[in-house]
Amino acid sequence: MKKITILITVIMLLTGCGSSTYDKAMENAKVALANREFDEAMALSKLALEEKTKDEKALTMHTYLEEFNEVNKAMDEKAWDVVLKRTEEMEKEEGLPYSIAQELKNISRLASANQKNEKAVSEKMKEIDLLVANQEFQEAQAKMEALQKDEKLKAALEDHSEEINSLSSEISGAVQKTADDEKIKDGKETALTTEKALKEQDTSLKTHYLNKLAQIEIGLSDLKYLYADGVTSQMLEGEAETLKRWDDALNEIYGVLKERLSTEDMARLREEQRDWILFRDYEADLAASEFEGGSFEEVQRLSTLGQLTKDRCYLLVDYYLN
């Protein structure tokens, strides 16, 4: 916020009031938008509107940013249905800035995952409730422990912590109360129970790579310092490293598919991959052309390559891995 205030003050001091203030504000707003500095772009578009209240370009930009802020607010409130509905509506809007469109894809994917995780927790809790009602306390306890250890559901579990702790205490008390009356199961039953528990805790190859891709996204936070000062050379370094991480993941997934797919399916995938590479390079060049001749051109190109490579990773995992 302090950075935004300083930037607006500088614009006002350098240009005074009038069309020059509008031009400077819009110019900086576009740069901020391309850099995904949405709060800064919002403040600058507002400044431009104060100079030209009916200007279509400034009004359109400001409206997009207000809608984007509403989506982020819904994310903070964990209103996943609202987020998914609003992102779908915004993605259909013509002229939506590229940076906002890409960020909406990330938000939509995260909201969808969170919604899915919350549903998974609720369903597992219903299963456990039913086991308790049927006095199958040992199995209820095993499922509860497995649920509490499920790292991919960690955030959703926190939202249900009070309910989970209460039910867990109830189960523990019931198990303790009936422990002296239960007979020790024979070796065969124990082996079957252990095998069942292991199968329940085992994750598919698809889940493994979805988790791995999610960890890559989280890990990109260690590059934030490269964007903090808005220095093009540092941003270029950040985008290059981001692209490398997604490209490494794509190569790994592609290697796994080589071992799993039939000869026919692999031949088809190779052809698809060649077409995708042409599409990827075309889209990156197109996005970069908006800054042709400028220092930000290569930053934008690498950013687009990174985003498309990430999207390709998720597509291959979703479609080909089971």
UniProtKB/TrEMBL annotation:
Q: Which residues form a coiled coil?
A: 130-177
- Record keyword Coiled coil present: yes
Keywords, in A-Z order: Coiled coil
Lysozyme inhibitor LprI-like N-terminal domain spans which residues? 232-315
Query: InterPro entries this protein is in?
Result: LprI-like_N
A Pfam family of the record is LprI
Q: PANTHER family from the entry? A: PERIPLASMIC PROTEIN (PTHR39176:SF1), PERIPLASMIC PROTEIN-RELATED (PTHR39176)
Name this polypeptide is given: Lysozyme inhibitor LprI family protein
